Structure formats: C-alpha cells, structure tokens
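User: Please fill in residues for this 202-position structure.
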C-alpha cells in the first residue's frame, strides 16, 4: 500500500509541474502565431473603401413626387444620385426621368442620360441624350432641358428637333406650360429659328 501511495504522490507532484508548463507552451504558441499575422495588410483596403464611400456618397434609385401650384402631378426618378457636398439639396443624377400629368389630361415624360436635381431651386436639369414626349404625339430631342418642380414649366434649349402629327420641326428652344389664352390648357411653344416641314396625310 505504501508503494502505491508513493507512486500516486509522485504522479500528482509531476502533474502539478507538467500541466502548467503545457498550458504555458500552448499560450506561447498562440501568441507567436498571432504575431505572424500582419493586420496592416488589411488596413489599406478598409481605408480605400471608407474614403471612396465618403467621397462618392450616393443614393440608389431616388424618387420625388409632388403637385405643382397649377395642379399638375410631377414625379422624378433616377438610377443613382450623388449629393453635392457644397450645395445642400443639390445632386447629380444618372438615367434621369420625369413625368408631368397636367389637369387637362396632357402628360409629358422626359428622359436623359444625366442631370441635376435641385430641391432648393425647385428644378430638374436634364443633360445628355435628352428627350421629351407628350401624350399628343410630340417627340422632342434637345441638347438640354429644365423642368420646374413647383409649377408646370419645361424649357428645352441648345437646339431642338421634334416630330409631331404630320410635321417635323426644328427650333432653337421649346417651352411647355399653361396656355395664357385658355385657362386650364397647356401648350408647346417653339422659339428662335423655327423650321416646320409639313407632311400631309394620305
């Protein structure tokens, strides 16, 4: 019995020494492995992402809807908008589109590859492959165009071409707005060097 007790005592004695040493070795190995990982390698990627997001903050699929002072419903959408950090309420946009539904029943839709939305000035500016189409079959292409958000007023400038029922039109500018002669009606007015080619029907 005494031999067994001595052997047990010796085993306990060595285990008290070996187990703590083993734990120290494992911990040391973990720290050594951790030091071999260079966290600085990941920092540049994080910096680039954060900097890019801060510099190029953008809004995906923004939209606006409202009613003008003369009762027309206006809606504006874009694929993407980038707020201007120097001008609150202003943003550049891509794939810009707008629709105006006038109380008279006339509708106008506008599209462009790019543009600018300015909520402070209550206007939308269209640039790049600009088009304006009305429900009475006017199809207009222009260099640029501006539409108001608080009242019905659209102006295309920079030279415009249009196809209309039985006609082709060229002009310097064209405007869309309330008819001053007939309350509640809206008209397209071509201005500048206007050229009309009439195409009689069959």
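Assistant: Residues filled in for all 202 positions:
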């Amino acid at each position: 019995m005494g031999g067994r007790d001595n052997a047990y005592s010796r085993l306990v004695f060595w285990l008290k020494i070996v187990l703590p040493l083993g734990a120290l070795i494992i911990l040391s190995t973990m720290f050594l492995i951790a030091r071999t990982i260079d966290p600085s390698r990941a920092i540049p990627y994080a910096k680039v992402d954060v900097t890019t997001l801060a510099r190029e903050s953008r809004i995906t699929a923004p939209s606006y809807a409202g009613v003008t002072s003369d009762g027309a419903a206006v809606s504006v959408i874009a694929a993407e908008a980038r707020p201007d950090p120097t001008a609150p309420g202003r943003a550049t946009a891509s794939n810009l589109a707008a629709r105006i539904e006038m109380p008279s029943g006339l509708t106008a839709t506008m599209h462009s590859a790019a543009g600018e939305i300015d909520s402070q000035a209550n206007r939308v500016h269209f640039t790049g492959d600009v088009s304006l189409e009305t429900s009475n079959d006017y199809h207009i292409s222009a260099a640029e165009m501006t539409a108001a958000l608080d009242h019905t007023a659209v102006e295309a400038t920079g030279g415009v071409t249009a196809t209309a029922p039985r006609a082709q039109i060229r002009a310097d500018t064209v405007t869309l707005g309330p008819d001053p002669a007939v309350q509640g009606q809206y008209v397209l007015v071509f201005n500048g060097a206007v050229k009309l080619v009439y195409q009689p029907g069959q």
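For context: Helices lie at 2-35, 43-55.
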